[in-house]
Specification:
By secondary structure, the protein is of the alpha/beta class. The chain has helices at residues 15-23, 33-37, 57-60, 63-68, 70-86, 91-102, 116-120, 177-188, 208-214, 241-252; strands at residues 4-5, 11-12, 26-31, 105-110, 125-127, 130-137, 145-146, 164-168, 192-196, 218-222, 235-237. The strands form three sheets. Strands 5-4-3-9-10-11 form a six-stranded parallel beta sheet, with helices on both faces. It is elongated. 39% of the residues are buried.
């Protein structure tokens, strides 16, 4: 069932969906780069502009690149942090924060590293790919981490002296197994699974909707372009999240929006 525009140009939310969401006890949401793009943050592969245009992201977002030239990699991530700092949560982020307040059990899983969901007010967030806001020790046997970046140009771990690195998942690295396990559990145990602003092809996040589907959850997809998940979604809205989610929240939970 697809969302559509009514005669007044508004996205139509069916009565069936409204009733279903009002009574839902558990909702899990997966978000991707699309929702952040609406806040002006370029997608990872589209972010190479200006001084960084001569580099491919794969040349910088690897442990090998960091080992060979940590200053270059850290400068690139500082630049990306600057882009994020200038961005603000959009109406889609804010609507998800409203949804969390209205659903008894709510988990938001994100592939984004920009922290916009937290800034919008969402509390229960699983960051699959880490966060640009944090740093951690680059030594494999040291678990030291910081909630923000120190001022030093090339910061070092106060515990072991190794270089500090962005707390993000680089190419060739595995996701945090604990975070991934929580994401799988949330996908398998929800009544409703939203897939929002994600292409549905990057693993292991791409598998999460199918975990929910196998557990007989209702799939709702919000993405301007069709994805492989589209045929399995009971409700599909081919519009940006910033258009759909505020209308959805205001229609389903009018006293909380």
């Amino acid at each position: 069932m697809s969302g559509s525009l009514n005669a007044f140009g508004h996205i139509a939310i069916s009565d069936e969906l409204v009733t279903f969401l009002r009574t839902a006890q558990s909702v899990t949401v997966l978000t991707g780069a699309g929702i952040s793009a609406e806040s002006g943050i370029p997608t990872f592969r589209d972010s190479q502009t200006g001084l960084w245009a001569k580099y491919h992201p794969q040349e910088l977002a690897t442990l090998q690149a960091f080992t060979q030239n940590p200053d270059l990699v850290l400068d690139w991530y500082r630049w990306r942090r600057g882009l994020v700092a200038r961005a603000v949560p959009n109406s889609g982020h804010l609507a998800l924060a409203v949804m969390e307040q209205c659903v008894p059990r709510f988990t938001l899983i994100t592939q984004n590293v920009d922290g916009l969901h937290a800034r919008a007010g969402t509390k229960n967030i699983l960051e699959l790919h880490g966060s640009l806001q944090r740093m951690r020790c680059s030594a494999a046997n040291c678990k030291f981490s910081l909630p923000d970046w120190p001022e030093e140009t090339t910061p070092r771990c106060p515990q072991c002296g190794a270089l500090l690195r962005p707390d993000v998942v680089w190419f060739g690295e595995a996701l945090d197994p604990h975070v991934l396990d929580l994401a799988v559990q949330a996908s398998r145990s929800c009544q409703v699974f939203f897939s929002i602003g994600t292409s549905g092809v990057v693993e292991p996040a791409a598998s999460l909707p199918y975990e929910a589907l196998r557990a007989e959850a209702t799939i709702i997809e919000i993405n301007p372009q069709p994805t492989p998940l589209n045929i399995y979604a009971k409700y599909s809205f081919l519009y940006p999240a910033g258009q759909v989610l505020p209308i959805l929240a205001a229609t389903v939970w009018p006293d909380s929006s």
